[in-house]
Amino acid sequence: MVDSRLMGDFETEVKELEADSWSLTVDKKYLKQLKKDVIKRQDVIYELIQTEMHHLRTLRIMSDVYSKGLLTDLQLEGQMVEKMFPMLEDLLELHSFFFSALLEKKKEGKLEGTDGFIINRIGDVLVSQFSDFNAENMKKIYGRFCSRHSEAVNFYKELHARDKHFQAFIRVNKKMSSSVVRRLGIPECILLVTQRITKYPVLLQRILQHTKDLNNLISEGSCDSEECSDSCCKFCKL
Fold first, then answer.
1. CA dist 39 to 18, 105, 164, 210, Å?
2. Cα distance between residue 46 and residue 164, in whole Å
3. Please, what is the Cα angle at 134 between 129 and 139, to 5 degrees?
4. Which of 9, 41, 153, 219 is deepest in the core (most CB within 10 A)?
5. How confident is the model at residue 230 (pLDDT cuts 50, 70, 90)?
């Protein structure tokens, strides 16, 4: 399995999001025409999209490499795999949808004649993701996942200590699929997922910081943007 297969439906986007920042993806002459706040805002939006891609990749490593491998290669019972990877399918669905919505904004902002893009409005996507039903759903999914964090890691350790087949499975996957797994073991994947939810408030606040003085607000009104950020901060504290 190679990385393009793991992220197959997003293969093109993966390649387009390899740069360290948005500033490095657009023509230098075009960049000089923009105000500093515009550039900083685009850099943060790019960071949001890029890190969401990385997060989705981690979830797919958990699903396509580890979870499926444990079910097919080691023939573990579904309940045991669920114990190690709680709410995994729900997380995949949630973040696949969010990443797709972000990519749609990226496509809408494509700069003619180049591979670059600029996103003028992103507030509708953020408000949709971090308020009302979607916010409650996200809170529920992450609440269950994070509450089972210790149990999942302890179960992994117990299985690794007593099951030689499990030890071999982990060793082979980390070695043979290093380009995909990126040296992420199961405990590392679980930790990264629990940490992701804490990143959103910071990213949203940084987008707002570089948006308020611009004509093109990230949504139809700054109040929606504030609502989005407030909603995100509230459920991330749970």
1. 18, 17, 52, 9
2. 43
3. 105
4. 41
5. low
Whether the predicted model's global pTM rises above the 0.70 cut: yes
Phi, psi values for residue 110, rounded to 5°? -60, 135
C-alpha distances (whole Å) from 199 to each of 95, 150, 202 are: 14, 21, 6
Q: How many CB atoms lie within 10 A of CB 14?
A: 18
Q: Which domains does the chain have, with CATH numbers?
A: 3-210+217-236 (1.20.900.10)
Q: Which of 198, 237, 224, 79 is nearest to 148 (CA)?
A: 79
Cβ atoms of 53 and 17 within 8 Å: the answer is: yes
The number of residues in the chain equals 238
pLDDT tens-digit profile of 121-136?
A: 999 999 999 988 999 9
Which of 205, 190, 210 lies closest to 236 in space, CA to CA?
A: 205
> What does the block give as tokens for 151?
């149990």
pLDDT at residue number 211: 86
